[in-house]
Amino acid sequence: MQYTIIAVLALAAAAVAGPAESCPTQDEKTPTTFVPDNQDCGVFYICDRNGQAVKYDCPTGLGYNPNTKICEQNGCKRS
């Protein structure tokens, strides 16, 4: 019973984490698209040419700032 509850909670948490918006389809003329995570500001995504979000983690202690598109100390607090 205990393992079932843990598994359900893990699946529920995984279901809500992810890019804050969907990726557009990319081509050679499209600039790189950066997308913040919808829950963890220490995570961001770079959209590939197929419109798939590729996950990246900021270094420990840094948060992704969507305005500057970099991980920085003055980004948000990492969860």
TrEMBL record:
Molecular-function GO term, any one: chitin binding
Looking up SUPFAM superfamilies in the UniProt record yields: Invertebrate chitin-binding proteins (SSF57625)
Q: Which GO terms describe its cellular component?
A: extracellular region
Note whether Signal occurs among the keywords.
Answer: yes
Signal peptide stretch: 1-22
Give the Chitin-binding type-2 domain ranges.
Answer: 20-71
Extract the InterPro entries matched here.
Answer: Chitin-bd_dom, Chitin-bd_dom_sf
User: What Gene3D superfamilies does this protein map onto?
Assistant: Chitin binding domain
What keywords were assigned to this record?
Signal
The answer to whether UniProt assigns keyword Signal to this entry is: yes
Query: Under which name does UniProt file this protein?
Result: Similar to Peritrophin-1 acc. no. O76217
User: What is the source species?
Assistant: Pyronema omphalodes (strain CBS 100304)
